[in-house]
């Protein structure tokens, strides 16, 4: 029911409603009663321009009223179960129509999706995932609504994992001479990849180095083991990826001769010995009272 408030006038104005220059009847589904426009039931075809007229002997005034009947959305293109590629943009479509532009909301695992650096919702309702992650392989739901009602559709996303190292091997690695060492390399993909190591310069691995399921195992590290090694991971659908590391062999620092606790009388000479070995050769410094001793500062009383 829509009321038309008539302008003041003497004599009191007569009021009636028209649509498309045709007077609204006083009976029927759409009728006028005492200046009111009455819809007993509303259908989509009632959308349009209605005009309220007020007239007396002094003249006439009129006022237009636009009425839009909201309809429940209908599907143009439902969301579908989708396979999206990891690290690439992914799209989920949710297209609907109604007399009023539907409002579209997306949910992921039941939680509302807000637009940010990863998610964008287009004007037509399409959801764009700017960079698909493995954990996007889950349930998405689109809800499209108008004041007349809503429709929704739930879909599952399957993420096609890219061939990648998990994690990539550290590019610089140092191992201890004469020790047993294992360097690991792991990878995942749509199909389980085969993983193996090679020497980057093309030479064969020495007999004391084994290569098994991504593990580069040195039974006893030698100085000649220093160099570049490449981990290769491959499967049929996705090809091959490589990661190269630079291996340094070091003799970790150890003391050959440690200084001993010593009792010294005032005015006498005290000597402390300290020798260390390693590769590269370690630099030896002395500290006294939490301060590195500077030869120039204490010479000639203290000599190093």
TrEMBL record:
Keyword Transmembrane appears in the UniProt entry: no
Domain of life: Eukaryota
Keywords: Immunoglobulin domain
Biological process annotations from GO: axon guidance; dendrite self-avoidance; homophilic cell adhesion via plasma membrane adhesion molecules
Chain ranges of the Ig-like domain: 1-68, 73-158, 167-248
Any GO molecular function: cell-cell adhesion mediator activity
InterPro entries: Ig-like_dom, Ig-like_dom_sf, Ig-like_fold, Ig_I-set, Ig_sub, Ig_sub2
GO (cellular component) term, any one: axon
Pfam families named among the record's database cross-references: I-set (PF07679), Ig_3 (PF13927)
Keyword Lipid biosynthesis: no
Name of the featured protein: Ig-like domain-containing protein
Organism from which the protein derives: Micrurus spixii
